[in-house]
Write a structure and sequence with these properties.
Layout (H helix, E strand, L loop, with lengths): L9 E3 L39 E4 L2 E4 L4 E5 L2 E4 L13 E7 L4 E7 L4 E7 L1 E6 L5 E6 L3 E4 L5 E5 L6 E7 L8 E4 L6 E4 L3
Antiparallel strand pairs: 1-10, 2-3, 4-5, 5-6, 6-13, 7-12, 7-14, 8-11, 8-13, 9-10, 9-12, 14-15
Length: 191
């Protein structure tokens, strides 16, 4: 794990990780295959406008709860075109549970910036997801549009918590799956 204030390690594909993987296999340090990517917001549990205060150009959400999940990541209610007059931005807090994986996907036509508040995470990225970078609390991450990536929580006991900002007010409307073995783009998320 990189020390705070140091440049994170970037390396080739980690041979200890099973492509398309999920939870860690017991005692092996590897991740064992689990359910495939789910492309729905079936756990959306609350009205996204319910927690928004304000008007006349200033809007606030105070201490929002985790209200929905997608692809192994839980999300607190944030701001997007779904609940404020945003046209080009969305932002929320993501929680990746211990040992979880956000399966390979691509952000089509929008940038993402993350700030890691808690935990340790690895992104495998690029063609075939053969590159890898690890980050920890205090690190910023920028993901260019169109870069395939898969996200791994490196802890089996602690969540990863990150602030996520997107240059897309629709949040998940422009995300597609990515097949790490063929390099093909798959289904578009139906949020």
């Amino acid at each position: 794990m990189p020390a705070r204030g140091r440049t994170p390690r970037i390396r080739g594909r980690d041979p200890g990780v099973n492509p398309g993987s999920g939870q860690r296999a017991a005692g092996s340090g590897q991740r064992a295959a689990v359910n495939p990517i789910r492309l729905d917001m079936s756990t959306e549990s609350t009205d996204l406008q319910e927690h928004v205060e304000g008007s006349n150009g200033i809007f606030v959400i105070r201490g929002s709860p985790v209200s929905r999940s997608w692809n192994g990541i839980q999300y607190k209610i944030g701001m997007s075109a779904k609940n404020v007059p945003a046209r080009q931005l969305s932002m929320n807090v993501a929680v990746v549970p211990p040992g979880a994986v956000a399966y390979a996907h691509v952000h089509v036509g929008f940038e993402v910036m993350l700030y890691i508040l808690e935990g340790r995470v690895r992104h495998e990225y690029g063609d075939g997801l053969k590159q890898s970078i690890e980050n920890a609390a205090g690190d910023f991450i920028y993901i260019e549009p169109g870069v395939p990536h898969e996200v791994f929580n490196l802890s089996d006991t602690e969540p990863v918590v990150a602030v996520v900002a997107r240059s897309d007010a629709d949040e998940w409307a422009h995300i597609v799956t990515y097949d790490r073995s063929t390099g093909r783009l798959g289904d578009k998320l139906q949020a």
